[in-house]
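Q: What would this chain look like folded?
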Amino acid sequence: MDIKNGFPGSVGNTPLIRLNYFSELTGCEILGKAEFMNPGGSVKDRAALYIIQNAERSGELKPGGTVVEGTAGNTGIGLVHICNAKGYKCLIVIPNTQSEEKIQLLRTLGAEVKTVPAVPYKDPNNYVKVSERLAREMDNAVWANQFDNLANRHAHYDSTGPEIWSQTSGSVDIWVTSLGTGGTFAGVGLYLKEKKPNVISVAADPTGSGIYSFVKTGEPKAEGSSFTEGIGNSRITENMKGAPFDDAVQIQDSECLEVIYTLLHREGLFLGGSSGINVGAAVHLAKKYGPGKTIVTVLCDSGARYQSRLFNSEWLSTKGFSVPKF
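A: My prediction, written as structure tokens:
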């Protein structure tokens, strides 16, 4: 019998999918880790589970307690699922710029949701800092602190990295993904480098984020903006420190949009903007390093979480884009 132990026991062990269209286009094996198939619908289920388990082990999170977090959505969704399964309450602080689908889903799942204006991290009213203050002011509450809590990257070092290594039989040549907290990039990158030091570990970055600049110049300077959600950062988090940054690729929104519609119409995969950044970067790397490479990236979450935006012609037109034709 192969039976998982509730929601927490169902997190991880996601398939690695060959992206046939992009693999044939480039002559490389472009493989996507299907993290949208986690039970909470995203890669962030892994970090959420490890953060809660770590807080339980330390004694910081006690029965009947509340988990508080500032999130662009997916980590909060993972947290509230696990809180429901374990009997905790959940308070989520989210920027009001995030998709209505994610905000409403958090409320439907039972989280208390506080929306705040989107302001830079240095501002005391930034959503991350608001969540920290709220957790401190509450009784029997813990702050998940996904950006600087190393349980985040440990989740990927312990699970995602070994899964990718096993699923590729160690043939992975290039690891590439976008960063928000940096947990996925760092955890997987550190694991793969231990197994195979010549694996190339590459950051994928949207415009408006400082990670590309950090890798290229040593300073996280952000320029422009992006319609992507939950990825990019203007600071180097604790989860990013010591991560293996071999290179970085910056992907424009126009290319991201083309990729997510290609994934839908050529691969049958309905995915969000971060997956578009990731797969777009994988294609760039395939062209840079040439045929025959095995490139692994992350398919982070479903396009259903952005349906009113990225898959809505009226919303796209307000950003100066149109729906790609197929």
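The beta strands are 16-18, 29-34, 66-70, 89-95, 112-116, 141-143, 174-178, 200-206, 247-251, 294-299.
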